[in-house]
Amino acid sequence: MKIWVDADACPKVVKEILYRAAERVRVPLILVANQPLAVPRSEFISSRSVAQGLDAADQAIVDWAEAGDLAVTADIPLAARLVEKNVLAINPRGELYSRENVRQQLSMRDFMDELRGSGVQTGGPPAFHARDRQAFANQLDRLLARRTP
């Protein structure tokens, strides 16, 4: 198992949880972004920069991730593509994307996008709280405990 991170919009606190987990369970952690990232020096932690452009990092993650890997992303279309490849995907709030829920979330995202496009103010996502950090850490621990070494 490798852990792939859609790093451009990933909260710093989530990255820090991932750094500690990668070291603790000795699993490769790869952060993918449109610009170079500073990551801790570790044999388990690396970053990959991809070309600038819309969804370049998303496409790279889809290309590189394999069935059984884990991806961290808040990007629902990316999560849907990964779930189709049998890649586990969670968002920074700890919600696990599945075949059962990702299509519904994608439909809701598209609906909200249509509302915004027509001028309706929908607001943004709620603020990231300590309970979100804890939910992410708990979900990550559960998923890493299930992995086959």
From TrEMBL:
One Pfam family linked to the record: DUF188
Superkingdom, natural source: Bacteria
UniProt xrefs under CDD domains: PIN_YqxD-like
Family named by the database record: Belongs to the UPF0178 family.
PANTHER family: UPF0178 PROTEIN YAII
HAMAP family with a match to the protein in the record: UPF0178 (MF_00489)
Name of the protein in question: UPF0178 protein ACFO6Q_07060
